[in-house]
Design brief:
Structural class: mainly alpha
CATH class of the domain at 68-203: Mainly Alpha
Keywords: Cell membrane, Electron transport, Membrane, Oxidoreductase, Transmembrane, Transmembrane helix, Transport
Subcellular location: Cell membrane
Shape: elongated
Family: Belongs to the cytochrome c oxidase subunit 3 family.
Oligomer: single chain
Strand content: under 5%
Domain Heme-copper oxidase subunit III family profile: 1-207
CATH topology of the domain at 68-203: Four Helix Bundle (Hemerythrin (Met), subunit A)
Strand order of the largest sheet: 1-2
Pfam family, one: COX3
Amino acid sequence: MSETIANGAVSADPSARYYVREHHPENGTLLGFWLYLMSDCLLFAGLFAAYAVLGRNYAGGPTGAELFDLPTVALNTGFLLMSSITYGFAMIAAQRKSVKGTIVWLAITGLFGLAFLYLELDEFVHLIHEGAGPQRSAFLTSFFALVGTHGLHVTFGSIWLVTLIFQLAKHGLTPENNRRLMCLSMFWHFLDVIWIGVFTFVYLMGVLP
């Protein structure tokens, strides 16, 4: 602290007396995002539990074996799993400080995500057109709730991905954008894990007699 004495009075330099420094806790954002993902796990756990209870309540309506088109669902699963692989390539490009490579792989990831959403919406439209909407039975209510919630997450993740592409194109691989890349990576892979559970628990088990 520096002080000057003038005319017998002590005066202090405010800039020297007070020192304020912005402080962002190391890995604080990633920790907060992990906490968010844990809360999302609770959300999906509740939806899976609801489907486990209601998944065989057909109310005289169609069953999963009658409704599900496994080849199409398998193709859709392939799209989402491939998007996870291409996002991994985007992270590798980011580690190599290649902005162009990161953007290209993120764009490919987004295309796979959009393909997944297209097939899922096509399935929903087809089911509703066949009279198998969410109001038809408890089974279909829980099905639309679980699969639809996952689809909403993929939609928001795709919007986030497009936003991140613009941020990278404008600002490059700054520490902030690297942190955003890491958070979106955790979110995207989390959606893949949830979908594997949906594909196994809802579709594969749904076609069993």
